[in-house]
């Protein structure tokens, strides 16, 4: 690996790690108990459809550290997104502007 490769990987990780990343379509895990394994920025991530039909994601840690760690996961428009950043920001900002009816 050349120094340019290391710099590129570091820049990619810092630029994209804090954002929402598309994983796959939700139809890739249609049934409860189905799972999908992906590698995101060098970290293995498991996306699982739980028994309650919710889709959740977990970071797979090495054995000495213990159990898998939950990762922020959202399903929007049939697509699964994950975010490795721990800061509190949402995938899409809800549109809370509502029109108030005018009286005639």
From TrEMBL:
Residues 20-68 form the Rieske domain. It comes from the Bacteria. Keywords: 2Fe-2S, Iron, Iron-sulfur, Metal-binding. PROSITE patterns: RIESKE (PS51296). This is (2Fe-2S)-binding protein. It comes from Streptomyces goshikiensis.
């Amino acid at each position: 690996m050349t120094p340019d490769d290391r710099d590129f990987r570091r820049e990619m990780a810092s630029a994209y790690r804090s954002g929402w990343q598309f994983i796959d379509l939700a139809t890739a895990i249609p049934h409860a108990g189905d799972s999908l394994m992906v590698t995101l920025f060098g970290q293995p991530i498991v996306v699982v459809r739980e028994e309650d039909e919710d889709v959740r994601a977990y970071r797979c840690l090495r054995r000495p550290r213990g159990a898998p760690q939950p990762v922020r996961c959202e399903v929007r428009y049939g697509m699964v997104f994950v975010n490795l950043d721990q800061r509190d920001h949402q995938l899409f900002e809800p549109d809370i502007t509502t029109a108030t009816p005018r009286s005639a």
